[in-house]
Design a protein that fits this description.
The complex is a heterodimer of chains A (about 450) and B (about 170).
Chain A: H1 2-44, H2 46-70, H3 76-100, H4 105-124, H5 134-145, H6 147-248, H7 257-286, E1 296-299, H8 300-317, E2 321-326, E3 331-334, H9 336-352, E4 359-366, E5 372-378, H10 385-388, H11 401-404, H12 412-422, E6 426-432, E7 436-443, H13 450-458
Parallel strand pairs in A: 2-4
Antiparallel strand pairs in A: 1-3, 4-5, 5-7, 6-7
Helix pairs in contact in A: 1-6, 2-3, 2-6, 3-4, 4-5, 6-7, 7-12, 8-9, 9-12
Chain B: H1 2-20, H2 24-30, E1 33-40, E2 47-53, H3 54-59, E3 63-67, E4 76-82, H4 83-89, E5 97-102, E6 107-111, H5 113-117, E7 121-126, E8 129-130, E9 140-142, H6 152-155, E10 160-166
Parallel strand pairs in B: 1-10
Antiparallel strand pairs in B: 1-2, 3-4, 4-7, 5-6, 5-10, 7-8, 7-9
The chains are: A alpha+beta (about 450), B alpha+beta (about 170).
């Protein structure tokens, strides 16, 4: 169950990790593609700007030239200044194309003409009357001649950059789309894996549920069987025991001695059989998994006193001394009914296996580690060491003649051990043949009532 | 502060007196104005607009900056006047920002905080020669290449024609 849960967690963790890696891959791809795109764009962006600035300065210079020649509203000094600025823009345009290392057919064609016109005007413009000389007029004509070329250059530069940007953008977009497509395929694969996993889990859960239902049904069937068996077995046995009791007590008149002995035998055997049936039914019902324990808080000494009083008549029959020694009493939280059942079982064993005139002692004490121990000590026949290991097995019976002559199916200690473990207690037996047996029921500190437990820990 | 302002005014007056009493003043009379700086007087606070010729600018004690630029080849020695010093020398209050405009109407704002982080030079000479308009002169604002100032290239305005102090 745990292994499956861990495997499931690993699978889920793996999926989350893969998804995170995919996302990081997509994000970093987009980031780097975008950066590369922007970086590629940067220098060539200048070209249309430089071309438009050049055209603008050309137009301003041409206008200044026209006005200077027409009416002198522009001074020669202003014209020179305008021309200088225009010159700087031509230089910058040329520099711009070299800087971005872009081939442009228009510029290749325009450049020589433009520089020729520029230098031609430069060679004459310092003379205030340059426009009146043949060389000046030629230079002015050359200057105005590049107008269309510059206009075309601006348009072409814009188109060139637009196309270059489009190509870069297309490449960047292709990379992004390819990455996204790859991620999409992986995501589909992951989703498929998750779907299959979820289906498997659902099937497993369904199977588990069905198995549980089956087990519950089986339990219910057993309970019904146990109840009917209990009724079916106990009813005739009660009749046998009851009627043999009537016969033994000669209620309806005296009987022959032999018949009385037979009636005694029937009664004893019937009672024995009833005991066996009860024990069998008990162990069957005790083995039910998860049987609910009704927990209550009680003092161990009080519970022990009840058990001792219950067993006093039986011990008295065998002339046994039964004493209770309370050295340390504590309140506990557990099933009182089960606790007493165990103690009574231990006491009845002690009474059963202690010859007449013996002694039984119940001691309640606490160990240094906080464990409380209830020990039932008897001065009985005891057990050999090899028998001790099997003492908790169901139907275990000692080979000792004293034991074989006594009643019992050998289920008592098995039931007690099971009940003790169910409550979180321990049950151990120590024994020396011919000297007696000590059964020790250990109650761990965890079962001591919370308030008291805390006090103990503090102490 | 008052002393500082008085000293600045005195320095400006002395500079003008020096210019007017020197052969440069002859050139000044015929020279074209290459830079107009407007701002508030450090002494009186009144609005002033000061026209400067190349001779006047070169009369100030020059600063030198060696650097490369993205528009030129190799390292160049620029000579000029540090921007913050220029305002002090002509007796204007130090502004928070300066709006600079070029001959082709290109304009950009230069924050004076840049001058605290690096050298911002109003350069008039490049490798010992005055710059022609066609060579990005006569005035070019220069930042060192590795200044780390944001958008320094945009602020390196050439063919500088006017500066307006913004307070």
């Amino acid at each position: 169950m745990h292994e499956r849960r861990y495997a499931d967690l690993w699978r889920r963790g793996g999926i989350v990790l893969v998804a995170a890696i995919l996302l990081a891959a997509v994000a970093s791809t987009i980031y780097f593609v975008n950066r590369r795109y922007e970086h590629s764009l940067h220098p060539s962006q200048e070209i249309p700007w430089l071309a438009s600035q050049l055209e603008s300065e050309y137009l301003k210079t041409s206008e200044a030239l026209r006005l200077y020649m027409l009416n002198g509203s522009v001074t020669h000094s202003d014209l020179l200044l305008r021309f200088e600025v225009y010159w700087s823009r031509v230089e910058l345009m040329d520099q711009g194309f070299r800087f971005v290392d872009v081939e442009n057919e228009i510029w290749k064609r325009v450049r020589p003409t433009l520089f020729r016109a520029l230098k031609g005007l430069d060679s004459v413009i310092s003379d205030p009357r340059f426009h009146e000389t043949p060389e000046g007029r030629m230079a002015i004509q050359d200057h105005f001649g590049v107008s269309d070329d510059l206009d075309m250059l601006t348009q072409d530069a814009i188109r060139m950059v637009w196309m270059r940007n489009s190509e870069l953008g297309r490449r960047a977009m292709n990379t992004v789309v390819a990455t996204l497509a790859g991620c999409l395929v992986l995501l589909i694969f992951l989703a498929g894996a998750m779907y299959i996993m979820a289906r498997k889990q659902k099937a497993l859960a369904l199977a588990e549920h069905e198995a549980k239902e089956q087990a519950l049904a089986s339990n219910r069937e057993r309970e019904r069987f146990m109840a009917s068996m209990s009724h079916e077995l106990r009813t005739p046995l009660n009749a046998i025991i009851g009627f043999s009791e009537i016969m033994r007590s000669q209620t309806f008149g005296p009987m022959d001695r032999k018949y009385r002995e037979y009636a005694d035998d029937i009664h004893v055997s019937g009672a024995h059989l009833l005991g066996l049936v009860n024990q069998l039914l008990d162990i069957s019902s005790e083995s039910d998994e998860g049987k609910r324990i009704i927990v209550s808080e009680f003092r161990i000494a009080d519970a022990l006193r009840d058990c001792v009083s219950m067993m006093t008549p039986l011990s008295a029959e065998k002339n046994l001394s039964l004493s209770l020694d309370i050295r340390k009493d504590l309140p506990v939280e557990t099933s009182q009914q089960k606790f007493q059942q165990i103690v009574i079982n231990l006491l009845s064993n002690a009474v059963k296996f202690t010859p007449d005139g013996g002694a039984i002692k119940v001691v309640l004490d606490a160990m240094t580690d906080g464990t409380t121990v209830v020990s039932v000590q008897d001065s009985g026949i005891g057990m050999a060491e090899d028998e001790l290991s099997s003492v908790f097995n169901p139907f275990f019976r000692s080979t000792d003649p004293y034991v074989t002559s006594s009643e019992g199916a050998g289920l008592g200690l098995a039931i007690s051990k099971q009940a003790a473990e169910q409550m979180g207690m321990g049950l151990d037996i120590e024994s020396v043949p011919g000297r007696g047996t000590t059964a020790m029921l250990s109650i761990p500190v965890e079962l001591v009532s919370p308030g008291r437990n805390q006090q103990l820990l503090l102490a | 502060m008052k002393i500082q302002i008085a000293l600045r005014t005195l320095l400006f007056a002395l500079t003008l007196a020096f210019i007017s009493g020197s052969p440069v003043s002859v050139a000044h009379a015929a020279e074209r104005v290459i830079l107009t700086v407007s701002g508030e007087s450090a002494g009186t606070g009144e609005a002033l607009s000061i026209d400067l010729t190349l001779s006047e600018i070169t009369a100030f004690e020059p600063d030198v900056l060696r650097t490369t630029t993205i528009w030129t080849d190799g390292e160049i020695e620029f000579k000029g006047v540090r921007l913050e010093k220029l305002f002090a020398l002509i007796g204007l209050k130090t502004p928070a920002r300066v709006r600079c405009k070029a001959l082709n109407e290109y304009a950009i704002e230069v924050p004076m905080s840049d001058t605290e982080r690096t050298t911002v030079l109003v350069a008039f000479a490049q490798d010992g020669a005055f710059m022609r308009v066609r060579d990005k002169g006569p005035l070019w604002i220069i930042y060192p290449r590795e200044s780390g100032i944001r958008d320094a290239a945009d602020k390196m305005i050439w063919q500088l024609r006017s500066m307006k102090a913004l307070y």
